[in-house]
Amino acid sequence: MGIRRTMKSSSAHNFKSGLSLWLILWLVVVKPSGVTACPRLCVCYPTPMTVSCQSQNLTIVPAGVPYDSQRVFLQNNRITELRADSFGFETQVLWLYGNNITWIEAGAFSNLRVLEELDLGDNPLLRRLEGGAFRGLEKLQSLHMHRCKLAALPHDLFRKLYSLQFLYLQENQLHFLQDDLFSDLVNLTHLFLHGNRIRAVSENAFRGLVNLDRLLLHDNRIRQVNRRAFRDLGRLTILYLFNNSLAELPGQAMRDTQGIQFLRLNGNPWSCGCEARPLWEWFRKARISSSDLMCSSPSQRRGQDLRFLRELDFALCPLPDPGSLAGTTTTTFSTKTRWWFSKNKPVSSSKALHQKNSETGKAFPFSAGKPQYLPKNAIESLSSKYELSEDEVALPKLEPEEYWANYGNEDASIRCLDLECSSDDNTAFSTSSSSVITTSFLHLLTFSIITFSLHLLFG
């Protein structure tokens, strides 16, 4: 009896073991083969697990997408909404471009914890996004939202997207960029914002983008760039600002882009008066690949390239004080310029020259710390303020070789070169000396009269 019980127990144990083995084999082999039961109108591929439902006129995200799908292609359909329960699978690549998406519910992608690429481009009806639309996508590396007619972006739209490297926002209808909009995107390397309607770049628009390599802002309506707008972009190598409405660009903004290699600024109405000096000085030190910068004003410089203006072209302009970020002005001229003026006295008086400098300061108040920017339609009407005076026109011309030979040769003091000081300076010195002697004689005479009077009164 004991032997029979042992045999029964052994056979039962073997049966259970065999059943478990078959169950494991079914889970491993039969279950994945069930992927052949794809969602209707879709095609599935096993390695890597891919579900392709493109160009099927779908109006909603199809149900029954396998949970282990790594790539899901839903592009070129007519899907209108993305709800929080639309995606319940582990996927790395999700394409939804070319649909009719009008609304994305907050948290619609929150279950896609391993998603690396999301393409929502070419959805022309997607004009608004919820603040938490991309919540949970902490491993997302590439986000496409081009040509969606987005007019504004919520301030927390990119919150905690620490892994994002590529962000495509071109050809929308963005009018402005909120401060700190990209502050969490510490690993972003490519930012495409061209083809929008952006009018100004504020101080904190790009704060936090410490690893940004290329920034495309061309084909916008930018008139103003804050002088500290690029302060975190020390690793930027490519900057496109062409085809905007820029009349000037702060030199401080460009000095912050220490690694810049390729710069395109053409297609802007550059004003080449005193306000252009900071940018011109930056170009003198920067050795980069750059487009041309054709001057629109003043009329005497129209058609010239701002980069190749001469130091003497800015001889009568106030310079920003190098010790002040606020831009306090001082009238420092180069040694060569001062010597030329000492030998060629301008016809206008010093009072008129001071008045001209005052007017220039009003038109371009560097001391205010925030340079004024001219609207595109006002450049012609105000161009008379930047016309060259007779003194400026009379300045000697320098050949390129002579210009670069004197590169950086500036001195705040007036010096005599080769004993060629103007005779007017000696005359001024003689006049000043005689004036001092006369004043001293009058003081001595007055003191003597007072002493004599006191002596008469008090004996």
Jot down its keywords.
disordered N terminus; two-stranded parallel ribbon; twelve-stranded mixed β-sheet; transmembrane helix; 11% strand; 459 residues; 9 helices; leucine-rich repeat; alpha/beta; Leucine-rich repeat, LRR (right-handed beta-alpha superhelix); Reticulon-4 receptor-like 2
Quick summary:
With 459 residues, this protein is of the alpha/beta class.
Explain the overall architecture:
By secondary structure, this protein is an alpha/beta fold. It has helices spanning 2-33, 251-255, 277-285, 335-343, 350-363, 379-382, 390-393, 400-405, 423-458, and strands at 43-45, 50-52, 71-73, 81-82, 93-95, 103-104, 117-119, 142-144, 166-168, 190-192, 200-201, 214-216, 224-225, 238-240, 262-264, 270-271, 289-290, 295-297, 319-320, 329-330. Residues 1-37 form the signal peptide. One of its GO terms (cellular component) is plasma membrane.
Q: CATH fold name of the domain at 43-173, please? A: Leucine-rich repeat, LRR (right-handed beta-alpha superhelix)
Q: Specify Rg, calculated over alpha carbons.
A: 37 Å
Q: CATH homologous superfamily of the domain at 43-173, by name? A: Ribonuclease Inhibitor
CATH class of the domain at 43-173: Alpha Beta
CATH architecture of the domain at 43-173: Alpha-Beta Horseshoe
Largest sheet: 12 strands, mixed
Number of strands: 20
Alpha-carbon distance between the termini?
159 Å
Indicate the structural class: alpha/beta
Summarize model confidence as the mean pLDDT: 74
The helix count comes to 9
Percent of sequence in beta strands: 5-15%
Low-confidence stretches are 1-8, 19-36, 323-389, 391-436
CA-based shape:
elongated
| Helix percentage range | 25-40%
Q: Topology as H/E string?
A: HEEEEEEEEEEEEEEHEEHEEEEHHHHHH
Task: Write out the strand line-up for the largest beta sheet, numbering strands in chain order.
Answer: 1-2-3-5-7-8-9-10-12-14-15-17
